[in-house]
Design a protein that fits this description.
Blueprint: H1 8-15, H2 19-45, H3 49-66, H4 69-83, H5 87-113
Helix pairs in contact: 2-3, 2-5, 3-4, 4-5
Amino acid sequence: MSLMDLNMSRLHDITGGDRELNGEVIRLVLEDAETAIGELVPALRVRNAAVGGTLAHQLKGASANVGAERLADAALRLERALDDDDWTTASRSFDEVLAALATLRDVAASLEAAGES
């Protein structure tokens, strides 16, 4: 777990540094990411690059907007792999998305415990 996975400066730009709002924004991103993952799994299973690419793009944007940089980067790699119809890289990138999401959950929990969110 690393705060490097979350650009706090970017998050504070959005929330004005409001700790409660920081937490709410992170929770919303995590909820949206979980929904996207739930929709990505079947799309990837049937090799639907169009749907998978759209979901990866949405995940990338939402993550980048709040400073969840590792998740945004992994989602970008997934989006590009799907655009290229490169299923080997897409599989690896999806694993990176899952790992980044788990790390973001850990960072959010750490921030909450420290009173930052």
